[in-house]
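Task: sequence design from structure.
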């Protein structure tokens, strides 16, 4: 039960993290601990079992998530220190803690460190066979890859997460995967695919009655429409989100979508309407004290007023924008600056007193005493430098050691994943072959039904209809099979094409299937041709690869 609750909370945190970041960082200092944290501290002092301590420390890290990332990392790191056993419960806690650490470092834009935490989390989820956690993990890794611009990894992890979610019927996360796939296809300018996945996500959110998810999809779809120049559709979707915020009295919705509508109308040069939505958004932001949106709202107002020709109002809005911008920047540092100033004044006073004393002593000191003081000062400096160098060397050696350990872990996991994919592809190919044979058998049944009349014909049609509904389309499975092959065989494709650039895409796919030790019948089914054509294709391939008739084609392709 605890695991399920933690997973759901984590999903929600990741879903809203992008929106929360738009509000700007609020004051992350915590003036006083509330009752919840006081309870957790008390429980930790009384706990004697390692797993109980680990669970409490985990909850303390989650408590500070989004409020104070330094404390989040501190408590989640302590989870690893208190857990000693190598059992299912301990490893589950370790995996969840590493996943939260990855999310926290992602929020801080430390992407390399975040990926290291995700890899550690994957290790523990695999050890406990937690496929639900793995589904979550792949989705979060996909988001991280999108931040880094790794689109292929972004797509691959989304499909992995999607397959795991379908098996467990986790429809909410499945919908978020569909939404992210819509974003991916929007990035590569595939309009139909993007809209297909956006619509699929919206359908699930509607069926599950999750309004936040619905509005999330609408907002991303609106951005997609704006990017491809369909501004009317974009504005219509943003208005739906805005209306939902008004109807349900959600001020932040009115702030966000009012601001987006203002930018949209400005983009199509409808300045009066843009100014109207800017005013609505800015008023709500001022009442709620959302400084980040106030700052953006004044910038927006300045640009709109300038476009209209109201230069006085544009100047005033620009001034207010700068004022809020400076305020947001300085607010986090005021306390630190004050501490530094007080510390500086104290040190300055002490220095002044010291200088006076030294001046008086120097008048009475002999040259020998001065030389002795200078000597010991130099010795102290050399000692300090030497100690610093030793510390640096130790830190660098420890970091190098950790990197080597992490590299070995990554390689082991990658080898395991490749082995699993190879087995999966083999089964997948055989499954497609069986489905193709079924399709041929289906055609024969249809021909036989044509010759039957009366009630018997109706019965045969009903049987056939039931059979068809339980089958998967061969074309879709085949295409998905080839996608999985391409993901697995990237290095094989690269080596083959570099040596034989004249090979077509069909030739390369044939090479892959031969390399997988598939017979001519299976290859014919996968390529939708007859076995005789496979033999002809093999002969043509031999010529392109400059192989004689006696050479073993399978052995040759396995060498790549």
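Answer:
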């Amino acid at each position: 039960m605890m695991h399920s609750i933690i997973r759901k909370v984590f999903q929600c945190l990741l879903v809203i993290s992008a929106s929360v970041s738009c509000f700007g960082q609020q004051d992350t200092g915590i003036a006083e601990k509330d009752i919840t944290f006081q309870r957790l501290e008390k429980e930790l002092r009384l706990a004697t079992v390692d797993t109980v301590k680990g669970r409490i420390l985990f909850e303390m890290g989650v408590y500070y998530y989004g409020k104070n990332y330094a404390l989040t990392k501190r408590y989640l790191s302590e989870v690893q220190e208190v857990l000693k056993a190598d059992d299912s419960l301990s490893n589950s806690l370790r995996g969840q803690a590493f996943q939260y650490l990855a999310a926290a470092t992602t929020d801080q834009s430390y992407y390399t460190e975040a990926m290291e935490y995700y890899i550690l989390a994957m290790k523990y989820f695999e050890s406990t066979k937690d496929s639900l956690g793995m589904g979550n993990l792949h989705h979060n890794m996909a988001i991280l890859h999108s931040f880094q611009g790794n689109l292929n990894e972004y797509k691959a992890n989304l499909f992995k997460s999607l397959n795991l979610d379908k098996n467990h019927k986790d429809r909410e996360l499945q919908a978020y995967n569909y939404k992210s796939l819509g974003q991916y296809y929007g990035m590569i300018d595939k309009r139909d695919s993007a809209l297909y996945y956006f619509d699929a996500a919206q359908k699930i959110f509607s069926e599950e009655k999750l309004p936040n998810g619905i509005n999330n999809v609408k907002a991303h779809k609106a951005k997609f429409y704006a990017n491809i120049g369909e501004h009317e559709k974009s504005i219509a979707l943003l208005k739906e989100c805005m209306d939902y915020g008004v109807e349900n009295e959600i001020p932040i919705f009115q702030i966000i979508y009012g601001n987006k509508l203002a930018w949209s109308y400005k983009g199509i040069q409808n300045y009066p309407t843009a100014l109207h939505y800017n005013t609505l958004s800015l008023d709500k932001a001022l009442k709620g004290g959302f400084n980040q949106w106030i700052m953006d709202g004044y910038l927006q107002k300045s640009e709109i007023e300038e476009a209209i020709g109201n230069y006085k109002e544009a100047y005033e809005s620009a001034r207010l924008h700068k004022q809020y911008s400076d305020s947001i920047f300085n607010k986090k540092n005021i306390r630190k600056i004050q501490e530094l100033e007080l510390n500086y004044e104290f040190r300055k006073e002490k220095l002044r007193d010291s200088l006076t004393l030294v001046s008086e002593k120097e008048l009475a000191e002999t040259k020998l005493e001065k030389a002795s003081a200078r000597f010991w000062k130099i010795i102290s400096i050399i000692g300090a430098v030497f100690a610093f160098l030793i510390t640096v060397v130790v830190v660098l050696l420890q970091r190098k050691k950790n990197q080597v350990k992490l590299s070995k872990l990554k390689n082991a996991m990658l080898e395991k994943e490749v082995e699993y994919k190879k087995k999966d592809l083999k089964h997948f190919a055989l499954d497609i072959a069986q489905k193709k044979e079924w399709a041929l058998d289906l055609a024969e049944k249809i021909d036989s039904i044509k010759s039957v009349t009366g009630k018997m014909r109706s019965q045969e049609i009903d049987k056939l209809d039931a059979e068809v509904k339980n089958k998967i389309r061969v074309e879709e499975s085949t295409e998905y099979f080839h996608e999985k092959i391409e993901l697995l065989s990237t290095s094989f494709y690269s080596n083959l094409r570099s040596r034989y650039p004249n090979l077509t895409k069909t030739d390369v796919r044939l090479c892959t299937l031969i390399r997988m030790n598939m017979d001519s019948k299976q290859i014919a089914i996968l390529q939708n041709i007859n076995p005789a054509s496979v033999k002809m294709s093999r002969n043509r391939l031999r010529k392109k690869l400059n192989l004689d008739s006696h050479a073993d084609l399978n052995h040759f392709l396995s060498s790549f």
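The chain is about 85% helix and 0% strand.
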